[in-house]
Amino acid sequence: MAEGENEVRWDGLCSRDSATRDTALENIKQAILRKAEPLRSVKVLPYRSSEQPLNAASWDGFNRILARLLMLSKRCPFEDVREKSQFILKCVQELGIRIPRPLGHGPSRFIPEKEILQVGNEDAQMHTLFADSFAALGRLDNITLVMVFHPQYLESFLKTQHYLLQMDGPLPLHYRHYIGIMAAARHQCSYLVNLHVNDFLHVGGDPKWLNGLENAPQKLQNLGELNKVLAHRPWLITKEHIEITDSFCEVEALMEKMKQLQECRDEEEASQEEMASRFEIEKRESMFVFSSDDEEVAPTRDISRHFEDTSYGYKDFSRHGMHVPTFRVQDYCWEDHGYSLVNRLYPDVGQLIDEKFHIAYNLTYNTMAMHKDVDTSMLRRAIWNYIHCMFGIRYDDYDYGEINQLLDRSFKVYIKTVVCTPEKATKKMYDSFWRQFKHSEKVHVNLLLIEARMQAELLYALRAITRYMT
Amino acid sequence: MEKMARVTTALGGNTLTGRTMYCHLDAPANAISVCRDAAQVVVAGRNIFKIYAIEEEQFVEKLNLRVGRKPSLNFSCADVVWHQMDENLLATAATNGVVVTWNLGKPSRNKQDQLFTEHKRTVNKVCFHPTEAYMLLSGSQDGYMKCFDLRKKDSVSTFSGQSESVRDVQFSIRDYFTFAATFENGNVQLWDIRRPDRYERMFTAHNGPVFCCDWHPEDRGWLATGGRDKMVKVWDMNTNRAKEIYCVQSIASVARVKWRPECKHHLATCSMMVDHNIYVWDVRRPYIPSAMFEEHRDVTTGIVWRHLHDPYFLLSGSKDSTLYQHIFKDASQPIERANPEGLCYGLFGDLAFAAKESLVTADSNRKPYPGDRRHPIFFKRKLDPTEQFESVSSSALSVFETEPDSSSMGWFVDTARRYALAGRSLAELCDHNAKVAKELSRNQVAQTWTMLRIIYCSPGTMPSANLNHSIGKGSASLPLMNSFNLKDMASGMGSEARLDWSKGENRSENILLDSSATLITNDENEETEGSDVPADYLLGDVEGDEDELYLMDHENAHTEEPEYVLPQEAFPLRHEIVDNPSGPDHLQDKADSPHVSGNEAETVSLTPVESFSLISISHTLYESRLPPDFFSALVRDMLRFYAEQGDVQMAVSVLIVLGERIRKEIDEQTQEHWYTSYIDLLQRFRLWNISNQVIKLSTCRAITCLNQASTTLHVNCSNCKRPMSNKGWICDRCRQCASTCAVCHHVVKGLFVWCQGCSHGGHLQHILKWLESSTQCPAGCGHLCEYT
């Protein structure tokens, strides 16, 4: 690409100052029109014209720019940028160049696009969140758009993400994104993997690493095993895992990695319900379906490069052969123990995560479907404890009979799928539970699921670290 | 076995004996509690519930209360408490939310007495009333506290904290009806047991969960709380608002806190995570534990003093499945390993140093420093009679005095008073300050000022006059001491001579050069160049006609303008201080600097020719070819040099006088550092006005805002004589305009002078006038006001 001084610079768009944005837009417009000029004459889409490889390359670059503009025209929190991007696109179109069109169905496959908040209709609080997110990342991703159903939570979520992925920390930035890739790949979430691949390259990561885990430094490879266990069967984490890893990297870094795994897992699950699963499996009524999962077809996509041992998946806690003692919350809980340890290892993260748990757990609008003024605490607790139960975490003071009364079978299937094997979640499952409920409430359920799962994994990991330390 | 509760009361009273010892439990402990007679301890955990007798040499298991075949969650204890009135009565809090009482007097194997299943979540704490036999209190994760009467089947009252989970409940020892509850959200509530509808008092004690609290065993209404934020705080509950009186910062979250018996200021803490030690703190000394028990290998979950009146025996249970008895004399004392030292600089250069005596005496064989006025002062803390440690902390204090005349700071004060920093033209300021420095026989500084004037202003009659002046005084011949190469200079500058200032004292290292060699006069240049330079008439303040001819360039001329500052209203400007006891040799080191030779220590005698040459040099330097900031690097180095020599006065003064010309050359942080040092010095010498002026003139934001901090002054209302807390003119108590002038009865907006005795006052002018004729208060209150 012979870009040179013609290169389009996007960074000004993130500014909160409208004058700066304006200048940036004007520059973009000039640059694009300059680029468009020589391409006008070529009417045929030149991807196919193999005899003009040079030209094809510049077409390729140009189309990427147009696609970015299209994205901006839809997904930028600043109205001026949206309008101007559209305008530029139109200009290009008038030059006789084909412009791209949006293909997708909005940020989520499961939720109809019209149910989701359109960028531009947000209220002041949401707008601030969008602007913050856009300024930091230069994008509004699908996850943000879905989570904005619950702005209070989103705020905490973005803060935590930002702190973990962008702020100063014990790990270099590209390590963090690489860990993100590993974690997201474990659940075959191509969307998240791609996001992190982009970020990874953006912060100067070595593209070679992306060819497979074996190309990454030993330190990260050691995390592979931990990643695997943590993702699917966290109860198997022992202090030996920590020791192995620890011989190569200090505990702080490890902690961070775990947090990241968790974080990414979060995103992952949130996005899983947004994205159609590639593995269309029939809806199975039985919860026991998972016992046979090991024979399932290994994912073929290139995502599998990022992790090893593709057959490793969730197994029912109670059904797998080895005896693993029940994890009792009364002996090791987040509030008393986990928080202190995390804060000690990675200052401030404990606070952020604690806040996030609290918000997710206590979030309520006192509504249920069409009913108002309902105390939903019992239901929330049932969901939370059910998820922990799947990971073998037990609350002494909870009557597990409540779960059966409150959660019906299809809902349980959904929970279990999303929590344990999010890649298998389908729209059918999503639609079949709680038919009366609003989408925002279902998103809330998802938030509960990801936070509960994250806490479960954290508890196991932190307990292992505690044991390692003592 | 049924007699066990009475087995070992022989110890009784304060005559406990024993040693540090431990025993293995079968499972991790969650809590422990002692019997009133200090002879038995109960240990409770998820899988353990046993009573041990504490014997002289060992723990002996007396009773296992976990009976029955099938394990029940009712036995999974989060907390246990032994009644302090009835040695047969125990209560446990189960993780499943059940409160169980146990009666050891029961003849059967199963001692379980009553079962209360009212809480929905884990019960975190149970507590017996200190004097009432049947009253039991529980606090649970579900946010409720319940009070049980053991003669009844159900709770008698329920208290809703409305603020998340209850972590601890404790009956007050002093007030029969009061109990304290601590919460996961950081709150502490005080309740009256008779009023379940509403708490008496609530305050936020910690950031994050408050895990524990403990009332002071003596009669003082003190409550200690410990939280996840790693703090232990002691609250005085006697006042209307709970007042934090002590705060101890631990290194990990605080799980338990227990006042030490018979020691008013001591308390023991243990942590929930990471840290396995037990600390005993003196709350008055919050930075270092006074004692430490390091036996446990996993977190300590329960601590209890063995006897209500014995401060030397501490029992503890831990997740590492051991039960310990700690004896105080076996405790490790971190203080022993610390080397407390104190060092302080006095205003006049004295240095005081205090350290542990042992450390000081260790190196006493060193040759005593001449200025050492050593006072071996030993501070002996009055020993707490109950304190077992005999380690007396004595320390030695040494004071090193400076010799009276060697570094008297008189010059500093004088210079500070007399320097001019603003309000006049740069040239005048420089001249003035040079004069001040000269008069204080700080010749080097004087020369620096003169040079600054030459660099930044056109040379006028003043500098030469100054020089001549010095010449007159000087008696010595000129020892010139610069080592630069004339030829380089000459080529660099486009011709001419430089003057060497011999700055500073004569240092032996300095090379004496022949003065004639270094000083080259160039009269011709002077004239010709003078005519080349365009005159700038914008500069109004030039003193001599010639000055205009030698302006460096327009930019400099313009920057001069802001210098005309209005006279300061509040106080007369004082002179800035410049002084440099040590020599500013560094100027000379720069090949490209103009050198003027002059010697501080002995005044330089310059021949008239030389002074001429000085002028001529400056002319040539200011040839319009030179970039305006040609010298700024040099001046910057000069300032750095002065600051490093300890003469921050000079650095700051020059910084202020030169203002924009040099400010950009020096980074904010350094500037700020200089300013704060200088202001600090000024304030130590009580030169308040000058320090204020410096603050005002500084361009650092961090410094100028110093003057804006705590500028609020609360006055009394002149009507009701109560302090006025609100803003504005109206007193919110008597609803009248408070600050009216006692003479003209109008509200005073602006300068208000008032009598501190009767709060009356008014317009400054009016009061002054009034007092010319009267000695009494103009308000007629009869007070003999004194307005000075």
UniProtKB/TrEMBL annotation, chain B:
Component of the GATOR2 subcomplex, composed of MIOS, SEC13, SEH1L, WDR24 and WDR59. The GATOR2 complex interacts with CASTOR1 and CASTOR2; the interaction is negatively regulated by arginine. The GATOR2 complex interacts with SESN1, SESN2 and SESN3; the interaction is negatively regulated by amino acids. SESN1, SESN2 and SESN3 convey leucine availability via direct interaction with SEH1L and WDR24. This is GATOR2 complex protein WDR24. Pathway: Protein modification; protein ubiquitination. GO terms for molecular function: ubiquitin protein ligase activity; zinc ion binding. It is found in: Lysosome membrane. Belongs to the WD repeat WDR24 family. It comes from Vombatus ursinus. GO terms for biological process: autophagy; cellular response to amino acid starvation; cytoplasmic translation; negative regulation of TORC1 signaling; negative regulation of translational initiation; positive regulation of macroautophagy; positive regulation of TORC1 signaling; positive regulation of translational initiation. The gene is WDR24. Residues 579-598 are annotated as: Disordered.
